[in-house]
């Protein structure tokens, strides 16, 4: 039984080993957009063709990392078209605050502002409106759940 657990553990770890290539993520902040421009996708769809993803371990990256991150913050009053402010930040990240990649975490600050942080581990994955759960995360989670369920 212990040998089976060791083999499964090694297989799960092997899924996370990469070939040494760094992840590439989009990097922008709507807070740095020129007036009356929305280059980072705060109010309209993010246009990947206007941006070049950066290697997260290069000097171009504002923060080194092993996965991508997208942060959205939004004011509480009215709708977006009624003047509610919205901010989007896309960048590389090295630590997910919740400790999980491939998911989005959200909440509300005490002042009523909404926030959402999404983490993913595929090249250019922080350029989409919805981040999908990577197979590199989904498969080990499913295998672990099945193993624990049938062996406990």
Automatic annotation (TrEMBL):
First and last residue of the signal peptide:
1-22
Q: Which terms are listed as keywords in the entry?
A: Glycoprotein, GPI-anchor, Lipoprotein, Membrane, Signal, Transmembrane, Transmembrane helix
For biological process, the GO terms are:
regulation of synaptic transmission, cholinergic; sleep
Taxonomically, which superkingdom?
A: Eukaryota
Q: Name one Pfam family in it.
A: QVR
* GO CC terms, sorted: side of membrane
Query: Any idea where this protein resides?
Result: Membrane
Q: How does it sit in the membrane?
A: Lipid-anchor; GPI-anchor
PANTHER family attached here?
Answer: ATILLA, ISOFORM B-RELATED-RELATED, PROTEIN QUIVER
Give the protein's recorded name: Uncharacterized protein
Native organism is Photinus pyralis
């Amino acid at each position: 039984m212990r040998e089976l657990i060791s083999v499964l553990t090694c297989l799960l770890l092997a899924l996370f080993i990469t070939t040494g290539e760094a992840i590439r993520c989009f990097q922008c902040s709507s807070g740095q957009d020129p007036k009356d421009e929305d280059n980072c996708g705060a109010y309209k769809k993010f246009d990947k063709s206007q941006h070049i993803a950066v290697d997260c371990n290069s000097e171009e990256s504002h923060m080194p990392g092993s996965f991508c991150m997208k942060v959205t913050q939004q004011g509480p009053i009215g709708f977006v078209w009624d003047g509610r402010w919205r901010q989007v930040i896309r960048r590389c990240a090295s630590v997910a605050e919740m400790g999980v990649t491939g998911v989005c975490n959200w909440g509300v600050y005490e002042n009523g502002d909404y926030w959402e942080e999404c983490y993913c581990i595929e090249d250019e994955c922080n350029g989409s409106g919805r981040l999908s759960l990577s197979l590199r995360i989904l498969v080990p989670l499913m295998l672990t759940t099945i193993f624990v369920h049938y062996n406990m």
